[in-house]
Amino acid sequence: MFRNGAFFWHPGRMPSGGSTTTGLALARAKYALDAAGLASNVELTRAQSVTNEVWLTPDHVVRVNRKADHRLRREALLGPVLPAEVKYPKVVAYGASSGFDWLIVGRSPGRPLSRCWPTMSEALPGTAAWRRSGCSRTACRR
Predict the structure, then answer these.
(1) Is the pLDDT of residue 121 over 90?
(2) What is the DSSP string of 11-51?
């Protein structure tokens, strides 16, 4: 069900794992965009994640959870009620289908902390961890 057009992606950026695996993951991301009423013919770039299939569009992050725990549903419900200091991205849409659930959030500028960590001086990781824990304390105060 891809009403909005053809697939667009950068083959050079695709992860290893075989074309069938990548094709199914891409189909799930396109399904989520389409189900959310967003254009599914946008360029998608695969992002690395340990727990989800993650795809980036210019404006959104599409996360697909293939486990039956509906973990992204909980996140979709909690994200909007977190304090602004946490800087959780805006939830655009959530849904589920047979065997997976998905969450689409607004894409924020910047780089993931996990990518920056190895290049930081010895003093900065502690500062970043402190700031991150500060956000956690803010979230828990409510």
Answers:
(1) no
(2) GGGPPSS-HHHHHHHHHHHHHHHHHTTS-SSSEEEEE--SS
From 3.30.420.40, 3.30.200.20, 3.60.20.20, 3.40.50.80, which CATH number describes the 8-109 domain? 3.30.200.20
* pTM for the predicted model, two decimal places: 0.71
Say if residue 112's pLDDT is above 80: no
How do beta strands 100-106 and 43-47 pair? Answer: unpaired
**Whether the predicted pLDDT of 19 surpasses 90:** no
Q: Would you call 131 helix, strand, or coil by DSSP?
A: helix
Domain range list for the chain: 8-109, 110-142
Tokens of 62: 């599409």
